[in-house]
Predict the structure.
Amino acid sequence: MTEALLRVEALRAGYGDAVVIDDIGFALGEGEALAILGRNGMGKTTLILTLMGQTRRFGGTIALRGTRLERLPTNRRAALGLGWAPQERNIFASLSLEENLTVAARPGPWNVARVFDLFPSLAERRRNFGNQLSGGEQQMLAIARALMTNPALLLLDEPLEGLAPIIVEELTRTIRRLTAEGVGLILVEQHTQLALGLTRQAIIIERGRIVFQGTSRSLEDDPAILTRYVGLRGERGPAASRGIARHPSSPRETSP
């Protein structure tokens, strides 16, 4: 049996004494992309932070390519292959754009030249300091910096939040290119239809628990689930017209 890229089992975590996510479990294969959906405050970002070791874990396991991570600090998880572009971006204001990239670099196929090919507009701003970049440029830089760690799995937390439509379109094309190239990816995103169009698998989190787990396509085809847990009116997403490849298999789906 082939080992999953990421396997999470019975994960419980939160802050202080409060449990925010409870009994979370899923597996992600090599090169697969997963959307994590749900309304605000339901535990999506807490799940990402828990994968990176930024919360208090009460139980459960996290394994990346068979290596247990749950007791490791954040820097060790990054060294083992978790790349993270946080919601806050965390750009170093006093470093140039290029220095922001190289400070996090690890050996591998992703280097400065390759990320500038992915984000040509960043190449034009390579000597600008972090505090001289627009919000869209900072978001591109956050993703590029995560890629410079040469991750096995890229975690993107709300990468499209608060950005102008033209930047959303550019980042959507970039994420689609990454998934087409086989980059393993977990995407937390409020733009539900875009997220479903960019991924093959999806889960919905409601009050810290998974209430749907299956293919992105099957979720697009279930307006009742979308309306109940995400707040959409059930319109079909644009994934089919974008030519996004899907897994032929359909994992289990659960709903109360």
Q: What stands out?
A: The longest strand covers residues 18-28. Confidence is low (pLDDT under 50) at residues 233-256.
